[in-house]
Specification:
- The structure is a homotrimer.
- By secondary structure, chain A is α/β, with parallel strands linked by helices.
- Helix content of chain A is 15%, strand content 28%.
- Chain A is built from 4 helices and 38 strands.
- Chains A and C meet through strand 2, helix 2 and helix 4 of A and strand 21, helix 3 and helix 4 of C.
Chain lengths: 350, 350, 350
């Protein structure tokens, strides 16, 4: 796209947009401000990157309305508008080449079971295995080597990347993305202890249901319910290597960072943010908009919406930060005790 | 099954069993007490669920011998006996449809190496790859896309789900279940530091041995030994995303929750319970029946059987809980120091 | 190899090497000193294993120059030299059978895309899928079921084990080893929050680049950059189940233990050692030769090379260990406060 075309495209979405410098350069792709080459577009959404404006090699920078233009590098044009971050995200989408997860149509090497229903414009990759009675909605893509056992339902416009495993009965919504190596619907970890100390496997009869517009990272595990369903809501975002145990319910638009572990029968509200490597005891509940700091260990329910939690056992952020500050200051407490003891000894010796 | 058939089945196992209400309803499946519909059976094994008895829609509830029957919902029958939990687990197995991990027989798309020995009634799924000299016992199932490298031995009645990888020389017992995405026998993480700061790979010549009746979750990693074997005992239960490093020995009937990490050459006793996200330093040993709390970091051996550990570095539960209570009370300690300082200043000013 | 052949092989590398005992026994493999059988070679590199010398069944033990020979078991020969550990590692390589990740040549069931370039002596396993325009260097091996999407470049002498997924545009160097279940180049976890609380996916346009001589464990996830590249340096060693987020840069010869999680845009220096289950906040930087203790949580950058970090939030080792000691001693501090309070009450009552 020419710079003038980018200006016109952004101008069709944002008001008060200004182009400074030449509009005739051809922009071939995006780059970070400190790595951009001639022909690339970059952005500044944070004051601390302003210093790069003077010597970036980007041909175009998207920046905030008040960004000063005096020191901009020669040969660099600037588009100024109120929300440069969102503007740049939209440009990223313009420059994004769609990945070919699977070639159009059903690969000749894919194995399709009996009574499978496949929508229009579905792509199924090499060596994919689709079990009996599966349903795949219009425009969805199943990557190479993915395995759907029996009775799996996939909505429309959903992308299952290569090497995903869905156990029997899994239900996946529309516009969902599942990355490689993820296993959905394996048996929950349920065992009844026997008198001799060994364990009896509790049959896991339920399934997993995943809502529309959810994205699930790589090598994630989401276990099927013992009875009923493990439920992932709509618009949920799950990072790599996350564990979600049987019978969990994850509320709509909740975000879970990498390597977090959600134990069995936990219910998370909507719009929560769960930090990386956080862990949860079983059977607890968090209200909507709860934030959990990375590495926290949640040991009980918190019913008030909108709070932030941290620590192990986790407590509301303010109390926890105050406690941690006190704990870091323990050295000076010890010194004050020593000083008191010295003064006391002196007083008593009089 | 009719309710009377369920009563007769449970009556053949348990004594002192009583049916209250109609026995003629057909029960089609199990459900949780708060989600059950007409035609379903549920259970109450915990007093706090008693309140559901009045308005459940379940046609049958399995409950304890002393559960009061006055307020039971109309149309709901009750079977009372001493151990409703185990009784319901047995019913779950009755209603469990076996999953078809692979259709009977050897899929035409499976690749079988040379000198492979396959028992009676074995199922091997689509695109499975079985290396030279593998041995697969009677009635075992190898899921679609699973890869067994050379010289892998699988016992009888074992289920390897789809997308499992077993490196060369892995030995798996009888009645074992391995879930999808799990990698058994990859190289241990062993490198000899060189003088220039780089690392020389230490060959990993050993293998992994997995005992009978063990269940291994999804996306687990169990590394082969440098020499000898990494040994998983009998009846061990390993949850998703667990890491077991080279040369570990996990005792019989030990349970390891999700995302725990066991470093190299650790020996765990029998009947241990390891919490989620717990971590172990290398080369240490825990006695039989050791419990490790979630997120603990075990930094040394504990040779006394039956203890519970918690914290990082972990110590026996009672000491650790006492320490954590003291640490949470640090704010009041600070206030007491301040009060003492004020009193001291007053005393001295006299 | 005969013992004399082993002596001659080690003598060609090390000086001051002495053989004690018979040289005519045939050595068939290596074993640990406490498990070795007749016909096996073992080693002692640590004084605490000296006690095994008296009753080992090994036919040959590699030991340090000053190891006493009086009490050596009958039938056991000893080779003494200055560095028995490295000597034994070299013997391990001698006895190592190369694993057959894929039979020589391209399996008839592998699917090769258009415009793919394959070097000399490449092996590609059953059901591997190689996307359009991939390049695979000489002597490299692609395991069964591995999937390379479009435009993936693999150097020479590299081994991609079974069940690895490389997304489009991944670049892998020479002499790299990637273990099973690992996913390279999945989308980074980037979402722009919208006013209604939902998230807009930020396109992930970059790729992953992996340097020469790197080894990556099983079920690892390394995400592609949003723009530019996620870069793994040369000689890096990554253990199982590690998460490396988008836009990270891992310096040469850095070692990362199992289940560690590196958040987005983190830069690690060269020769760092990262402990298991350690976690990193985003956008921070560690200098060369930084050591991070297991389970630490790194919350800010540390620019001084060669330091050790521990704790959450992590700080330099010495301060952290001092802080932890003070925190463990909080019980005695409380007792001292109580004693002071009693003394104070006594003083005031006078």
């Amino acid at each position: 796209m020419l710079i003038t075309e980018i200006r016109d495209y952004l101008g069709s979405i944002f008001s008060n947009i200004e182009l400074h410098g030449s509009g005739e350069t051809l922009i071939t792709g995006p780059a970070k401000i400190d790595e951009a080459q001639a022909g690339q577009v970059s952005f500044i959404a944070n004051e601390k990157y302003l210093r790069y404006l003077a010597d970036t090699e980007a041909s175009l920078v998207i920046a905030g309305s008040s960004v000063p233009l005096e020191s901009v590098a020669q040969g660099t044009s600037v588009i100024r508008l109120a929300d440069p971050y969102t503007a740049f995200m939209l440009l990223l989408q313009k420059f994004s080449r769609p990945r070919t997860v699977a070639a159009p149509g059903i690969a000749s090497t894919a194995r399709i079971g009996r009574d499978v229903t496949i929508g229009n414009n579905v792509s199924i990759g090499n060596y994919a295995v689709i079990g009996d009675r599966c349903v795949i909605g219009d425009n969805s893509v199943i990557g190479a080597h993915s395995v759907l056992l029996q009775d799996v339902a996939v909505g429309s416009h959903t992308v299952i990347n290569a090497h995903v495993t869905c156990y029997d009965g899994t239900v996946i919504g529309c516009r969902v993305i599942v990355h490689s190596g993820t296993v959905i619907g394996a048996d929950g970890f349920g065992f009844a202890p026997q008198q001799d100390g060994s364990y009896l496997k509790i049959p896991q009869l339920g399934n997993v249901e995943i809502g529309d517009d959810t994205e699930i990272g790589a090598n994630v595990t989401i276990d099927r319910a013992t009875m009923g369903s493990t439920v992932i809501g709509k618009g949920v975002k799950i990072d790599n290597l996350v564990q979600i145990a049987h019978n969990c319910r994850i509320g709509d638009h909740t975000v879970i960072a990498a390597q977090a572990g959600i134990s069995g029968s936990v219910t998370l509200g909507r719009f929560c943010m769960i930090g990386g490597q956080a862990g949860f005891a079983g059977h607890l509940e968090l209200a909507d908009r709860t934030n959990v700091a990375a590495k926290s260990g949640i040991s009980k329910s918190f019913s008030e919406p909108g709070i932030s939690l941290r620590g192990y056992p986790a407590q509301p952020m303010r109390e926890q930060l105050r406690l941690e500050a006190l704990q870091r200051g323990i050295g000076s407490m010890k010194e004050r005790i020593e000083a008191l003891e010295a003064e006391m000894a002196q007083l008593k010796s009089r």
